[in-house]
Structure prediction request, 112 residues.
Amino acid sequence: QVQLVESGGGLVQAGGSLRLSCAVSQRTFRVFAMGWFRQAPGKERELVADINWSGSVTGYADSVKGRFTISRDNARNMGYLQMNNLNPEDTAAYYCRLNNHWGQGIQVTVSS
Prediction:
């Protein structure tokens, strides 16, 4: 059973930063692309950022370009999402995804 566990969320003031981590139990982690998604109350889940298997190609939603950075450490089976200059619109539950497996999600709340 593949497990993904997010950490690093919490409450931050607007303009602040957080770094989310995703620990993956799958030994073949390095084979798959991974993504970070978020879902705000009353809204659909949306893709925030994704990264290919090697980390050489990344993509971002327009709303987070220039503020968020996705990365991965294949030696440690870890994925990361560095979030800078956060604003209240970034408030949501954040999820990591790998090969159709999802983490349980972690809350990020940005106060104005």
Notes: The chain has a mean pLDDT of 96. The two ends are 40 Å apart (CA to CA).
